[in-house]
Amino acid sequence: MLVKILIYLNDVWSYEMKEKCPKCKGLGSIVVDYKECNACGGTGYEDSFDVGNHFKGVNNNARAKFDLGSEQDIPCEVCNGKGQVEVYEDCPHCNGSGEINICRDCGKHIDNKHDLCLDCKKKRDEDKMKRDARIAKENETKDVFILDPICEMRDMDKDKLYKGKITRVEKYGAFVTLNNNVWGLMRGDVSDYKVGDEVIVFITSIKPRERKIDFAPTYVKNYQIKKLTKNISRTLIGDLENNMGKLVRIDGEVMQIQQTSGPTIFTINDESGVTWVAAFDKAGERAFPDINVGDAIEVLGDVNEHGGKTQIESQSILKLTEESSIRLHKAIDVALNERAEPEDVEFLVKSDVLNRLKPKMREAACKIRRAILDGRTILLRHHNDADGICSGVAMEKAIIPLIEMTNPSNDAQYYYFKRSPSKAPFYELEDVVKDLSFALEDQERHGQKLPLIVLLDNGSTEEDITALMQAKIYDIEVVVIDHHYPGELITKDERNGEIYSATVAVDEYVDTHVNPYLVGGDSQLTAGALACEVAHIINPSVKELIKHLPAVAALGDRAECGEVYQYLQLAKDKGFNKEDLAKIAECVDFEAYFLRFMNGRGIMDTILAVDNLDKHEKMVNALYNEYLKRVDTQLKAALPNIKQTQFENGIYFNMIDVEKFAHKFTFPAPGKTCGFVHDNVIKKLGEDKAIVTLGHGPDFGVFRATDSVNEQYGFNVNDIVSILAERIPSAGIDGGGHECAGSIKYIEGLGEEVLSEIVREIKEMTKI
Q1: Which long-range contacts (CB under 8 A, 24 or more apart) does 616-622 make?
Q2: Dihedral of CA 613/615/621/626: which sign?
Q3: What is the mean predicted confidence (pLDDT) over 415-430?
Q4: Distance between CA atoms of 313 and 287, rounded to whole angstroms?
Q5: Contact 411, 451 (CB under 8 A)
Q6: Residues 664, 666, 668, 669: is their CA dihedral positive or negative?
Q7: 195, exposed or middle or buried, with CB in 10 Å at 0-12, 13-18, 19+?
Q8: Closest to 298 (Cα-Cα) out of 315, 281, 280
Q9: How far apart (Å, rounded) are the C-alpha atoms in residues 568 and 377?
């Protein structure tokens, strides 16, 4: 039934939209020409002769039709006596239909292909566009603003929608509050509203002089809430001191978030510096929980002073938009890169190796300076001997002043710098597990960024790879400054027979690697010297304070090269002769044994004469006397038990079981004991002799050798360890070090076999 009704309505509509064609009068065709009538041959009459009865009837009919007498001619029925007939064609006005279309809106005659004239169609299209636009506008998501606490009437915009709360209802309207500073009257029928209702309004009028705003309610189908902040110009952190007591806006990146028993403290940096922002919601509760470390934010607040440092008491904190965040991060990155770029300073000594290492050393200095500016902790690891400790102390003296200068906290150095010794001359798993654990805990508890790890006097060998790999899993940046033999040089760039650059296995896991072997040098240029030079690049002001430390490191590591003599002269110019420096190095080793895993910052500063200078001489004398006593006691037990042999190849080989013939759990440790035994043998035989000393225990061995063994026979502890590891795979052999000083570890059950192979390897060495 419905279908029939629709068909009927369509027919009625179609009928109403059509009428007879005025040209053809509804016939659908018009006369366009005339031609001779074929029936009468153009005469207009039929033939009069009678041909039988058949035609007789026709003629009679024709006479009757035209009312003719029998004697009259009969007109042609086809042309009605005219002798011509019309020639028809379809009416071009209605295309032969007999009907024409009329505009359904205005009734104008139009083309049969359309039902609307051009004017009416245009009007309908415009109406449709307006209707679609109105529907789209009703369905679009609109921005509805809520005001932050410090916005005032001057910050309002009549083109915006606002969300507020009804605080009072009267007969003439309802009062709507947008924040503590802005409220107004919503006029009209408010009978459906009550106090506490939230309402979306638009502004109908603003009267600044009378401090009045009139609102009107509005219905919004789809909307999103945005926060409107006070429109004030940005202030750089570096200019905060000039705006004390004023309301400011800063845009910056969150470096750290610390929750105190009172406010939440945000550490913020921008292109010009770092400051604190205190935000309070409830005592001990996290303010602005949606803000995280690394976010780009806008802070509005009052500048004041807290604990002698400039601080902002925030009134609002907002995340910046994605576009603004990208722009701010880029600006900060460019500015910090410029500030992190170190000065171009001269090295403390003249050295071709240092000159070739200079790009890498500047890169290391730049990464450390950038980490300070980024608010990342510098986690510094060094070997626990004189060379490593000199490296660490030199870096510490360069880095801490920059941290204190950059960060406003009085205890910033304790948050952003940690120095820890490593017992082994490589980055052990035990070390990296501790470092990662503390770093991740600090990140969770205090909102600190992951640290920059700086390894000094370790980090270059294959033994370091497992620990470095773990650090890299967390994308922690690693800088290595070391002088241990790093293993096979994977690539070389040779010019005039000299190696200018090379890479080694650990470089895959290290961001910057400073090692003399990479540019054709060797271990005689100590880590202490390299670290002091990098510290000088990082902070040139520490030059006079630390310039004697490379000499202490060199004597502690028994290094000899052209650079060492220059460093000794630098120390002499400062008032330290070689004997003084040797005593300092030995006292550092002695004290390090008892400090174990503590950095001993104050004690080591005193021994190394970088602080507490009034106590330095007394401390060194006291420690050195005790040092000599303990060494003497150990040697009395060890020397009578040395097994000495001179092989046929000319090498003097000394072997002692330090587990059986040395005091345990006291200074000197097995490695040091082996060194003292070796030195004693050299005094007897002479420094020019090829001497190798092996101090061993159930599962370890410690090597010491004279330089002549390396020069004449190519002796290298790392090569021996590699050969034995391949020869006795079941012994679990590991170790390494310098060419003439290192260690080896193995399974206790195969100890005798390993020792036999060591003896065999040295015995079969031939001169180069």
Answers
A1: 619/587, 620/583, 620/584, 620/587
A2: negative
A3: 88
A4: 12
A5: no
A6: positive
A7: exposed
A8: 315
A9: 33
**pLDDT digit string (tens) for 536-569?**
999 999 999 999 999 999 999 989 899 999 999 9
Using H for helix, E for strand and C for coil, what is the string for 501-570?
EEECHHHHCCCEEECHHHHCCCCCCCHHHHHHHHHHHHCHHHHHHHCCHHHHHHHHCCCCCHHHHHHHHH
SS3 call for 265:
strand
> Distance between CA 15 and CA 28 in Å, rounded?
17
CA distance linking residue 401 with residue 404, whole number of Å: 5
Instruction: Name the pLDDT band for 454 (thresholds 50, 70, 90).
Output: very high
Please tell me the predicted confidence (pLDDT) of residue 637. Answer: 92
Query: Is the pLDDT at 496 greater than 80, yes or no?
Result: no
Cis peptide leading into 408, omega within 30 of 0?
A: no
Angle in degrees, CA 544, 545, 548, rounded to 5: 85
Average pLDDT, integer, range 151-157: 82
Please say whether the beta carbons of 526 and 535 come within 8 A.
no
- Per DSSP, 667 falls in state S
List all residues 6 or more positions away from 76 whose beta carbon is below 8 Å from its beta carbon: 37, 39, 40, 43, 44, 45, 46, 82, 83
pLDDT band at 468 (very low <50, low <70, confident <90, very high): very high
Neighbours of 494 (CB within 10 A): 11
Q: Across residues 642-662, what is the average pLDDT?
A: 93
pLDDT at 111 over 70: no
Here the tokens at position 126 are: 């415009």
* Cβ(536)–Cβ(348) below 8 Å: yes
Q: What is the pLDDT of residue 346?
A: 95
Contacts of 36 by beta carbon, 8 Å cutoff, 6+ apart: 42, 83, 84, 85
SS (H, E, C) 109-169: EECCCCCCCHHHHHHHHHHHHHHHHHHHHHHCEEEEEEECCCCCHHHCCCCCEEEEEEEEE
Q: Measured between alpha carbons, how far is 703 from 458 in angstroms, rounded to an integer?
A: 18
- Which one, of 732, 710, 707, 709, lies nearest residue 721 by Cα? 732
Neighbour-count burial for 686-725, b at 16+ CB within 10 Å, e otherwise: eeebbbbbbbbbebbbbbbbbbbbbebbebbbbebbbebb
- Which tokens belong to 725? 């590891």
List pLDDT tens digits, range 324-368. 999 999 999 999 999 999 999 999 999 999 999 999 999 999 999
Q: Give tens-digit pLDDT for 126-136.
A: 888 888 877 77
Q: Which DSSP helix (H) or strand (E) runs through 374?
A: helix 352-374
CA 506 to chain centre: 23
pLDDT digits (tens, 9 = 90+) for 722-745: 999 999 999 999 888 888 888 999
Residue 162 CA: distances (Å) to CA of 31, 155, 224 = 76, 12, 11
Helix, strand, or coil (residue 212): strand
> Letter for the amino acid at 692?
V
CA-CA-CA-CA torsion for 95, 100, 104, 107, nearest 10 degrees? 130
